[in-house]
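hiii so um. not sure if this is the right channel but i have a protein structure encoded as tokens and i wanna go backwards to a sequence. like what aa goes where. can anyone help
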């Protein structure tokens, strides 16, 4: 799974040709969550509250870039790195 960003120990990845709805994977300290890009909500898994707030804020800021990567992934093309939350 290609890594598209990493910040505050949170690793963000996206699978090629993954199932809908558009989403990304977030990992932190053994926790894993699938995050809906469009609605900014957890589809599966769980995260500590503080880290989840960071991931959801990052999703809000980079929604357009995430959707571009989603389309690239669906087409089995290389994904772009996205700036971390700072």
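sure thing!! here u go:
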């Amino acid at each position: 799974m290609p890594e598209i960003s990493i910040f505050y120990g949170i690793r963000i990845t996206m699978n090629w040709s993954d199932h809908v709805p558009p989403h990304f994977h977030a990992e932190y300290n053994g926790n894993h969550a699938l995050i809906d890009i469009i609605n900014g909500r957890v589809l599966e898994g769980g995260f500590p509250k503080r880290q989840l707030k960071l991931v959801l804020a990052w999703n809000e800021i980079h929604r357009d870039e995430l959707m571009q990567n989603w389309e690239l992934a669906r087409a089995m093309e290389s994904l772009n790195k996205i700036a971390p939350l700072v």
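oh and The chain has a mean pLDDT of 96.
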